[in-house]
Specification:
This protein is mainly α. It has helices spanning 11-25, 32-43, 47-56, 58-66, 75-91, 102-149, 155-162, 166-175.
């Protein structure tokens, strides 16, 4: 059974990981000599061999995912993407991957996938923060102008007085479900 990675996992993630690891415990370890046979067969297109290799590397998915816990991507998503990577990897095993370095090549591939996921999540979070700041700017400007004029203002008036583009004002209205205090929302 897993721990919660020093508090980085939610209860839902802990439960998911427990179920996932329970499923993995049912998969027998693959001795090195058998692994060689399965690698050769998988490279020749044997689907059963690919499936066995995928199952035997599912533990690697969790091991690498542990390093990325708490970095903006749910553990379930990390493991899901890791499993998709395994399917693709074993569908077309790189020529440099053999029984001597397969674990290293798989681990490096998982690290690359997870790095990209974390970067994408970080980029998305930064974009969301920009949108929130722009929306807050529009809301503050609308409230101030509305108070000054003693009535709700239009997007055109707000754009003219504040130099905030009409597009930004309309986007802010959309982001708030047309509920910005002091701003007409008849778009």
């Amino acid at each position: 059974m897993s721990d919660n990675f020093n508090g980085l996992l939610s209860d839902e993630e802990i439960e998911f990981l427990k179920l996932y690891e329970d499923d993995m415990d049912a998969i027998p370890a693959l001795p090195v000599e058998e692994r060689k046979k399965y690698i050769a067969a998988a490279k020749k297109g044997d689907e059963d061999a690919r499936g066995i290799l995928i199952q035997n590397f599912m533990c690697s998915v969790v091991d690498v995912a542990r390093m990325y816990a708490g970095q903006g991507v749910l553990l379930q998503d990390l493991i899901g993407e890791g499993n998709l990577f395994l399917v693709q990897f074993f569908k077309d095993i790189p020529s440099e991957a053999d029984e001597n370095n397969l674990e290293t090549v798989v681990t490096e591939g998982l690290v690359k996938v997870y790095d990209e996921l974390i970067k994408a999540a970080s980029d998305e979070e930064k974009e969301q923060e920009k949108i929130i700041k722009k929306t807050e700017k529009v809301a503050a400007a609308a409230k101030a102008l509305s108070a000054e004029l003693g009535r709700k203002v239009t997007a055109d008036e707000l754009a003219e007085k504040t130099k905030i583009s009409k597009k930004q004002i309309i986007d802010a209205l959309k982001n708030t479900a047309n509920k910005i205090e002091g701003l007409e929302s008849d778009f």
